[in-house]
Amino acid sequence: MPSNESVAKDQKESASRNYTEIVQSPSFQELLRKKRKFIVPLSIFFMVFYFSLPVLTSYSTLLNSYAFGAISWAWVLAFAQFIMTWTLCVLYSKKAATFDILVEKIINEVKGRG
After folding, report:
1. What's the 3-state SS for the chain?
2. Is 99:35 a contact under the CB 8 Å cutoff?
3. pLDDT (tens digit per residue) in 3-19
4. Residue 65 needs a FRET pair 20 to 30 A away by CA distance; which of 7, 58, 86, 106 works?
5. Banded pLDDT at 20 (limits 50, 70, 90)
6. Are 18 and 110 contacting, i.e. CB atoms less than 8 angstroms apart?
7. Shortest CA distance to 106 belongs to which of 35, 10, 8?
């Protein structure tokens, strides 16, 4: 009868092999490629948009002029950041559904091999 240690070691080695196979599979690589293609540009946009307010208010007077009434462009940009954050959250939530489909495909492939 195998000891608990040998069973645990076999399971760990099996999981390690499965993980390596999954990571190297074309389906997993496709998932990573699609996520990267979506997340990297949105992250860059978010960072530029987010840091534009403190940078522009600290180092220029560009946002000090009035947009309408007594509201300056700084306030407009600050409010726009809330809208931008919610918009990006909605976009990611919708896109995550397509990522979930790819993950299900990967899981089904792994179960088919196992």
Report:
1. CCCHHHHHHHHHHHHHHHHHHHHHCHHHHHHHHHHHHHHHHHHHHHHHHHHHHHHHHHHCCHHHCEEECCEEHHHHHHHHHHHHHHHHHHHHHHHHHHHHHHHHHHHHHHHHHC
2. yes
3. 656 555 555 555 566 77
4. 86
5. confident
6. yes
7. 35
63, 73 Cβ separation under 8 angstroms: yes
Express each pLDDT in 74-109 by its tens digit: 999 999 999 999 999 999 999 999 999 999 988 888
